[in-house]
Amino acid sequence: MPKPIRPYLYLTRIDKPIGTLLLFYPCAWSITMASYALQVPFTTPLKYISLFGLGALVMRGAGCTINDMWDRNLDKGVERTKTRPLAAGEITPTQAFAFLGLQLTAGLGVLTQLNWYSIFLGASSLCVVTIYPFMKRVTYWPQAVLGLAFNWGALLGWSAVAGAVDWSVCLPLYAGGICWTLVYDSVYAHQDKNDDVKMGIRSTALLFGERTRPILTALSASSMSLITYAGYLNGQGALFYGGVALATAQLARVLWQTDFESRPSCWKGFVGCGWSGFWVWMGSLADYAMLILSVSP
Question: Which reactions does this protein catalyse (predicted)?
């Protein structure tokens, strides 16, 4: 890319797509499960998965921009973050703010392709997105706030397909996603815990400490149980539960193998947690595909 554009791309963390995927997967679960429940033609989930994929890319980038605007002074004093565009002075705060406006406009453009119920529901998540970067200064549970924001798609995806949220299914799906976020972002936070202590930043990694593995095991079990319960309430078939079983095995493998004192091991574990979200989606997608094939003339 042209040199003047590169700092803006790095500001969105486009070189680390795992964040976009983690935002996208709850949307994909919900879209696919709603499509299964309503037995809509395959063009419907295809349309919304494409829209939400673009939306996840844009809004994850906007979240990173907001985070770096909050943290630019802190980032200057930390080895791992001092090369970020704002901390390094490659972009001014004014330029970052203008770029954020462009990102949010693009996100709004995606949102306006949905029904009015979904537009209002999607817009209501912006307050959580905005306050998240600040929460690590005031609570040891910023990962929980991230979970509230990153799993909003579990509600929004269903409303996009159905025109309204089926709360009986979507609330346990949303809660399961929040528990999942607590797992993967706590693993991620262990990379930064030494720097966080110096900067006065709080996280579940510091809160859990040596109890991290058993606590994350319990959260993983809660996540998969809640997602399974959402599938049960939605009348999902065996393929869905097969996907959840693979997701559960993936989380167990990550928690068994991750060395929480090693940055490379934590990064690998963080990325590995993303695959559990992928397997939940594949299970629901296989279930939906089997249903559509069975009812096709």
Answer: an all-trans-polyprenyl diphosphate + 4-hydroxybenzoate = a 4-hydroxy-3-(all-trans-polyprenyl)benzoate + diphosphate
pLDDT for the residue 64: 87
296: amino acid identity, one letter: S
First to last CA, the chain: 49
CA 81 to CA 201: how far, in whole Å?
Answer: 14
Name the helix (H) or strand (E) containing 77. none
Q: Dihedral angle at the C-alpha atoms of 252, 254, 258, 263, nearest 10 degrees? A: -150
Between CA 136 and CA 141 the distance in angstroms is 7
The architecture that CATH gives domain 6-295 is Orthogonal Bundle (1.10)
187: left (phi over 0), alpha (psi -120 to 50) or beta: alpha
| Core vs surface per residue 8-28: b (16+ CB within 10 A) or e | bebbbbbeeebbbbbbbbbbb
What pTM value is reported for the model?
0.92
79 has pLDDT over 70: no
Above pLDDT 90, what percent of the chain? 69
Tell me the mean pLDDT in the region 274-297. Answer: 91
| 116-122: long-range pairs with CB below 8 Å, 24+ | 117/159, 117/163, 117/164, 118/156, 118/159, 118/160, 121/155, 121/156, 121/159, 121/165, 122/152, 122/156
Dihedral angle over CA of 36, 42, 47, 53, nearest 10: 60
For residue 273, what are its two tokens? 């947690």
